[in-house]
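User: Quick sanity check before I run a bigger batch. Here is a single chain. Can you write out its predicted 3D structure?
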Amino acid sequence: MKKSRFLETTSTSLHIMAMIFMLCDHLWGTVIPGNDWLTCIGRLAFPLYAFMLVEGYFHTRSLKKYVGRLLIFAVLSEIPFNLAMGSRMFYPVHQNVLWSFLISLGLIHWNEKVKAGGKLWKRVLVGLVSLVLGYVIGLFTMVDYYHAGILMVMAFYFFRGRKWWHYAGQLLCLWYINLELLGGLSYQWTILGREIWVTQQGFALLALIPIWLYRGRQGYHSKALQYTYYVFYPVHLLMLGLIKLL
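Assistant: Done. Predicted structure follows.
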């Protein structure tokens, strides 16, 4: 008897969810401000992308081509990102998220190279140094999500797997990164007569539900769909940026 896959997510479904959540967040940040429910939904986007970036590293047929595509679209996305987030073509105080992913891929690759032939102490040392480097580089380059974004990618890298301690590590890391490092606005809810504070950034932890339902299946795939994932980022930012300027 075949096991039901009804509740399983695939690479395709995770990418589509991430795009929808990202669009919600960017709508809130550009042309529909004040609707906080949009950014609460949008908090789920980055963890999904961070997780899929790690999976992409291990499943890509060519790391050079993977990095090359990210680099090309990082450059193409910079002006649309500047228009959407800064209302100008030159906006040096904030860089688009694809640069965050490129930095993260570099750190992952360094760890993997050491892991292939290094002793345990060396692997641990490189792992710790890569976290410090990710923290510092993320802050000083001012990439999207800054240091927290790179640390989130590394959390999915270091706790990649389906054992209970992988899940526990992902949960604890995302809890610390989103609620302690990022924090931010909180909402006061009254449930059964008790006041509960919910942090806006805490909604990011809900992304772990579809992530934990992933079992390595790719789902529907085509070249056109693959490039849609990349093209969507600069195109939707450009459209939002132009609408914002009008």
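The chain is about 70% helix and 5% strand.

User: Great, the batch can go ahead then.
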